[in-house]
Amino acid sequence: MFSKLKLVWLVAGRELRDQFRDWRVIAPMLILTLCFPFLMNEFAKQTVDFLNQYNADLILERLVPFSIMIIGFFPITVSLIVALESFVGEKERGTIEPMLSAPLDDWQLYFGKLLVGVATPLLASYVSIGLYLILASRQNLNMPPVPVMVQLFLLTTAHAFLMVSAAIVISVQSTSVKAANLLASFIVIPVAILMQGEAVMLFWGNEQVLWLAVAGVMIIALLLIRVGLAHFQREYLLGREIDVINLRWLWHTFWSNFRGGAGSVGFWYRNVLSAAFRRILPAVFFTVLIAGVSLWMGYDWIMVNTAETIALASPEDLQKMEEQVRELPDLEAIRNSISAPFLFLNNTRAVAVIFLAGLVSFSVLGILLYMVNISLIGGIFALLQLLGVQPWPIFLAGIVPHGIFEIPALMIGSAVALYFGAALVTPQTGKSMGEIIIELLADWAKIFIGVVVPLMAIAALIEAYITPGLLFNVLGS
What is the mean pLDDT of the chain? Predict the structure, then answer.
């Protein structure tokens, strides 16, 4: 094992020497690493002077952690060019043939490039953050506590792994450095949006969510590394010279997989759709397990966090809350304002959003959205219990009639998103990454149109025209 890892270091050493020989790579990295902390320090100084006029102590406490997050991000974006050209750049320079012909395994080549691609921006980020902390300490700014500092360094590390692993996947799949650099926007922009959300959590002081962000980013980064290894093919790097958009081929590949040679709707359901459904059965099993965990998490969270609030409430406030819950809503007005088409479009849109979120995150974000939807049921159940209201009659009348169709549709739609991510990180010889994605999209379309849409249509009709009457009988009794 040690001899195999030694070859990884051999590839990494070669990559590192090539990188540090080029002053056009080193100069921007050094300038940004050494100069940006001074700019951020001046920004912090001006911000402190401004906020002191308004006694904005909360923002002042979060200013240094926010600056550390930004400082750690920018050197990674500049160093990303090294990872983007790791494979396709060697191809354009004509130096990739000797490397690919060397007695090295694919994972050794890949991890050698990945190691240097991650180490260089991380070193630049750590140096930049350290320099800023020295400057900030001289201004008597509120320094973050040790747990927050650990979170910030882990976030910076996770962002580096995420961006570099995505850049190397792009480098493997691209045919030119220009194309790889243009595709870099699909790395920088999503991570920048992600950091905006993390900054909001940082200013709110929600450290638990930041730990989840660290875990989520690292999971996606590991999945990206797995995708790169699963679809790394030496002959692909040497054989392709240019990518051409062939819309006819895209449509033909998608339609042939979607139709599956069926001549009738019945044949399509019996053979094509059933085969696609069998492929996602393991994912359906896991979504059922995840649903059970999500119900318990929603129930437990409300019981732990809301019980104390209700216990501290005055008897008058508690009685008023119970009366509001028990008060009979105007179900006729609800029935007139919410129609079956509205419910159908809203529910199918939710399933589509879960799939799209999973599509860009190897199922991680999609499953998180699915868990949030399911956990709401457990949370409402717990809230009704805490308020002294019997939840079972309300659930049996208000959720079960349409839920027996809507919840399975949600589970199946989320299972497809989970299957998509799992299939994408699984090696499939003889197929390009584009072919695999098109086939997976066809499978999703089959199940969405053939299963999810009919179930959601039935659920919408029941929820609009049957559930309100049943709920009226329960609440009115």
Answer: 80
